[in-house]
Structures
1.
Amino acid sequence: MTLVPALIVAVLFSVGVFLMLQRTLTRVILGLVMLGHAANLLLMVVGGRAGKAPIIGQFVEGEAVADPLPQALALTAIVISFGITAFLLALAYRSWVLTHDDEVEDDIEDARIAQLGEQEFARWWKRSR
Amino acid sequence: MSWLLVLPVALPLLAAALATIAYNHRKLQRAIALTALTALLVDAVAILVTVERDGVQSVQMGGWPAPIGITIVIDMFSALMLLISVATVLAVLIYAIGQPGADRDQPVFHPVYLTMTAGVALSFTTGDLFNLFVAYEITLASSYVLITLGGRREQVRAGMTYVIINLLASTFFVVGIAWVYAATGTVNMADLAGKIAALPDGMQTALSMFLLIVFGIKAAIFPLFFWLPDSYPTARMPVTAVFAGLLTKVGMYSIIRTQTLLFPENRPSVVLLVFAGFTMVVGVLGAIAQNDMKRILSFHIVSQIGYMLLGLALFSVAGIAGSVLFIFHQIPVKTALFLATGLVEESTGSTALNRVGGLVRRTPMVAALFMLSALSLAGIPPFSGFVGKLAIVQAGFGAKEYAIVGVSLVVSLFTLFSMMKIWNGVFWGTTEDPALRLAAAGPDARLHTPSLMTAATAGLVAITLAIALFAGPLYRLSERAAQGLLEPTEYIQAVLG
């Protein structure tokens, strides 16, 4: 194995994580796509050295053959992430239609409870002084 | 015999296809879904009986022998989970059919719901790590659709969080599988059991912790639970109920399966005990702070996961048997609580504690159903929660883990407290700011709940009561499941031959 694919995996992972930490939905989705690519490439790297296509009759005994399993796994993972990404994009579009904004919204109920807590604290602070 | 094992996945998928074809014929869709899930329930019972009589059952897909092909394997643990899940899924389906509007304006509901059932069944029955990933994706992809069905604003917001966090976990899962494959050259779980044991200690710990994080996100254990109380309450009630009952438990199932089968010599007891404690405490404290039935119950999902983790962390037959029994009781109880909450919402139009009140006079049936499930959740004898908790607590005493057992008992008390908070707010007393339908109905008017919804909820509550009633035989089955998990030779033999 060479260092290059491993480095690419590392770069894809860091780019993906950076994008995921952004507040804009489109970037978060792009980050997820990057992470997905990184994981799939990792599967390929894991398969070991490249070799002949593992088709019966196409190689002679003892010859180096590529490991077919990681390729099958990566293929499955790619199809799945393709479908989910399409769904996510549709959801992001829906979010934009509803809010005219591409930012991740806050949880309203959470904010309300935090506010209640602050009020309670303020009251307690006043009384205790 | 082998077709019996494949049916839990094949049948709902086939029914989902048929329901898609019957896109605009709601009655036909309902008939298909009901028939499929009823047949599945019969199948699940047949599987449990077979496993009880003949031990672990397995079948190789496509006839390829074990480490190469995909294996479907069902031991006692899988059979128990399968049975209770199918029963719960069926009850929620009936509830959804009975709810005005739940499936009527949503032609995709039935196909997606059936697909999710297939995904859950596959996660319980697969013997292959990558196939487990596929099962998760089937379940999750359907759940993404279900949670955003309707496309209201808060649904889209919460659904986004849900999809992104689960997608992240799935990506981690792929990475975990890549590492496992790199280290061992196989993804068949029975094959892995032997091969991982031959790896260096550090490598084993790394793999085990990484898989724990992956499944921990799905199961919502501390500190990976933040997405759950935020996203679950926004979906339609039947959807929230079935998620609450099943999805986190699928994650828990995978944690128990992988930690016992794949890492038999490397048991992260202390880590799991600490996480179990924090999951219980943080979940229940979160629940106490909330003021809405759905959100309170969502935090309790997290809290109860801690108990299951606690039973596993002891890594003894008694502990894991307690966990299995506890999960078996949690699935219907949690679902029943959410279904009862749905009845409150259906009859009053709100689930906020300060907007609803005095329901014990208006809908006594709903009040009774909620009370029975709430007492069961809190673990009051003689209900089913008591039996599960008792088994775990006894195992904890047996292992001399007094601190964590103490924590679990205190958490039980808090659970009871927050159930009483719901009871006082919603079912007793009156309210100054009544929900619309309550105000219109007048001070003491009886409220109407659709009878099919009530019947489905009552059916689930009856199941929880039956669990308490047949706790003895169930515990013996759980004990057998636990023995099979801790001494997986029979499982490995059934797969590898």
Note: Chain A touches chain B at residues 20, 25, 28, 32, 35-36, 38-40, 42-43, 45-46, 69-70, 73, 76-77, 80-81, 83-84, 87-88, 91-92, 94-95, 98-99, 104-105, 107-110, 113, 117 (CB under 8 Å).
2.
Amino acid sequence: MGETGLRPYKLAFLLPGLLSLLAIILFPLIFTIRVSTSGWDAITPDLNWIGGTNYAALWIDTRFWESLARLGAMATGTVIIQYVLGFGLALLVWHDVKARRFFRLLFLIPMMTTPVIMSVIWRTILHESLGPANNLLQLIGLGPYPWLTSSGWAVTSVMMVEVWQWTPFMFLLLLAGLISLPREPFLAAAIDGAGPIRTFFNVTFPLMAPVSIGAIMIRLIEASKLMETVYVLTSGGPGTATETSGYYIYIKGLRDFNIGYAASLSITYLVIMIVLLTVVGKLLHRSLIGGRN
Amino acid sequence: MSRLYVFLKYLAITLWSIFVITPFLWALTTSFKTANGVTGGPTYIPWLQYEPSLHGWRSLFGGNAGGIDIVKPYIDSLIVTVSASFISIILGSLAAYGLSRFTYRAGFVKNADLIFFFISQRIMPPIVLAIPFFLMLKWLELLDSKIGLILVYVALLLPIAVWIMVDFFNNIPRQIDEMAMLDGCTPIQAFIRVILPNSVPGIIVAGMFCLIFGWNDFFFAFTLTFTDTQLLPVAVVALNSSVTPWWSLSASALISVAPLLLIAFVVERFLSHGTLAGAIR
């Protein structure tokens, strides 16, 4: 069939999906850009034009920039921990382990569960006087710790719940990668008499580089949206200790109804995330795979 | 050395297993408590430490104080998640097949850019879309309705379906559909008769990911629905107030996450048989 005869079919495959996505995402996005140049709030809910006033205001809004820095630190921290733990767990149940199918299944379970619902359960676990966390730690002479009521501990708690929830996703992608690796390089390493540690650094880790980059990027993208766990676990508190950008925009937009200002925050947040994630992706690619593509 | 190595290996596996399972065990034991079993400090073993009661579980179905009626949110969640996943898989598979087999070009936009456009939608933070979605659904008079939520969820799930299916179709040899077309099939007939039957594992994997992310979404259900439609996560989190009924909370949490545990079984099967490696990369 010639190229011209194919044309209607080509479009029939692509367009339904593409147009649906464009209609659902692009219109709201353009609308948000327009709203961000308006003074839309609870008192005057209309699309007037105030130019870059909102953007000038957010430039000096330290609470917003702090929330971004906090988000960056928490997202990067949790993803690094998830990667190390996920890789470790994947190696543990890769082969030579009894009941490995059972442990694989068990390790996958947290990512199947609803994050907000499990966060509610975690909140009861971390309850200072009625929860089991402090109670059990006291049996071995530790604590009690103010899990959700002191700044440092609240950040730790949010990160711990994120690690619990999403290490399985990292584990899944990395184990799938490990299982699909070719056998020959490992045989060659065994013939050279390489021990497990040398085999890991010279064979496994380099072969896993593309999968690693993919897994880290997927998790970073998801982690850059971090807000639901915060909403349930700490409501951004104590003070603003765990307030991420998403949660701050939520407060400004859907609680205070400063729609115009929240829209300008949203656009700034989105642009910064796209730029940062692209840069991180490029850097990861260069450091783990090298200059070649 | 080697025995120490084996010991450490199983120790690590055991420790992580305990960490994974703790919230479920805690929720299970809490779901059988009454107010007395909670306010006296943490207890773990029924009969020995507290008198177990079915109060928490009963409150999920009746309207008694401190409980929720979980049946309607359950059905709503099921309808919204399954419909959105189904639509996403259909639209996503079609688009992915096109992108895998044909060359598209419109100005500077090529196949790789189109694939990137689909997948990059995952970067969008929910809060960025929440406000315009709210106004858009209000304008369409679809606020607080299942159809409105399905529409929104399709936008969330379609990128996942395209991401998984493009790679999956790329791994199916082109000769298969070329043979079918030589036999006189149109591209659409070839897709339906020859490609789809060969894509069942990919469709199942993509479908499972859609179900997971659809079922577990909270933020859009929270901001775009109020009373007529209420999805499970919203109903459960609504219990998380200043005076939280821990027993109904725990019972509803367990019953909400239960269906997706079945998906874990299927994912593990695909993972261990090596099918997943081809589907997610």
Note: Residues 71-279 of chain B form a domain with the MetI-like fold fold (CATH 1.10.3720.10).
